[in-house]
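[job 4471] stage=fold_predict status=RUNNING
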Amino acid sequence: MDFHQIINECSLGGICGGCFYVQNKPDKEQPSRELAHAEGCSLDGPDSMSKKAGRNESEAGDLRMLDGIAGAAEPRSNPCSALKMSSSREHALAKGISCADQLLRKEQRVRRLLDTACGEDAYGYEGTIESPLLFAYRNKMEYSFGDALKDGPLTLGLHKKRSFYDVIDVDCCNLVHEDCNRIVNAVGQYFRELGLTYNDKRTHLGYLRHLLIRRTVNTGEILIDLVTTSQPLIPVEKHADINETSIYMPESFAGYVPVSAGVDKVSILSDEPVRKKRGRGRRGSDIEIIPGSVRAAEHTAVLSEAAVMEGFVRCIMKLQQEGRLEGTVRGILHTYNDSLSDAVKNDRTDLLFGEDHITEELLSLRFRISPFSFFQTNTKGAEVLYSRVREFIGEELGPKMRVFDLYSGTGTIAQMLAPCAREVIGVEIIEEAVEAARENARLNGLSNCRFVADDVLHALDTLEAPDLIVLDPPRDGVNAKALQKIIGYGVKNMVYVSCKPESLARDLEMLQYAGYRVVRSAAVDQFPWTDNIETIVLLSK
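[job 4471] inference complete, writing structure tokens
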């Protein structure tokens, strides 16, 4: 791929959201040390393409391209592997942008919106704070299995920009720790050698779906989750497009793998077919899929799912044993997901090795993180963000006060404020996040935190009035009816944390009409190399 073409070739997060690479070797088509950025990419969560309900998750296509200014950034020794892809299509070019220029553009965007909502310079703006880490700041990545070209070899990486089907191998991404790159490379090679199928989004047939990796920044713990369907393990050359709509899915099964993979043979579950499904193979040959058993083709061995998972664990632990990982693998899991959507959903999770969670430290608090828990993607940036929230609240918080943390996620803000308040009540609609918040409060010895699993709009009808409110809504902001109820409490002070300044500006209009004014504001860059920016405002009445 032409160096510039990368900007439109990758998208991130289930889509690639920040493919970039500082080029060191110039040629006539590649400016030296120029930074490529994926236009319109999302870096704030792996499920943005599916727009799964969640906390602070970016939506694909909602970002602007950071273009126009060439600048100096720290060079990276390894190029993003998406540069290896080729395309005949001409793409728009994004020019390199220095870190200072990125910050300036984000600040201009925030201030323009606040000027319109509050009046020019009428909101006590205290500046835009840079992320402590510019590279390797993501603590979570979700990779997809697929192919880069139709009927091509198995790939494990990120979706090609604006493509629902094509997946680009990513053996080097500069937004994650090198441990993640080494793990995804090893796992991709392991499953390529086995020859297993990926889940085809057109036919919904195939075994492999996603690989989720979480790596904590402060504790260096690694959690890995392989996501598959419950379908039989059939190699690529035997993958069929079944013409019937009903497909039998046995709870246990055997499958094909090439003999060259070096695995032990195991017995077929059943020699007698229960029911046959006729299909058309990719090369036009008829094949049979038989519930409970699969007939092995010539030069193949039959392999159990258990053997595949054992090999998967060995593949990862070999990296650990050889000292190729800086962090420590704490858990390896296998999640089944038979959903027709491309979102990662948990039908069932089996523990293959170690523990089903990792632990991160944030502002002297400890948080247990499971594969699907919400936790800020940029740990060091979150420390800056939450420290500024605590600073904004400052003397307004007292030991006799009841605080609402609305849209509380896993309760990070609530637990940060709990030592200084009488009671903190967090409200969050995602039940798994609420359970994690309760567990984390117990872990941190906080008895004055209470978490409610409910929609904010409904929960406010059941709760006693607070003395202080913290709002940290998803990208769409606060529901208008819920905001009316929040205003109805008449609290003196509120803190609003926004991951989309456009939504904040809209909500500020209603809040100011009700008599609130913005007395302090600031922005924190949680996601370098994207257009995402977190904004904090303190409102008083």
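[job 4471] summary: The chain has ten helices and 22 strands.
[job 4471] exit 0
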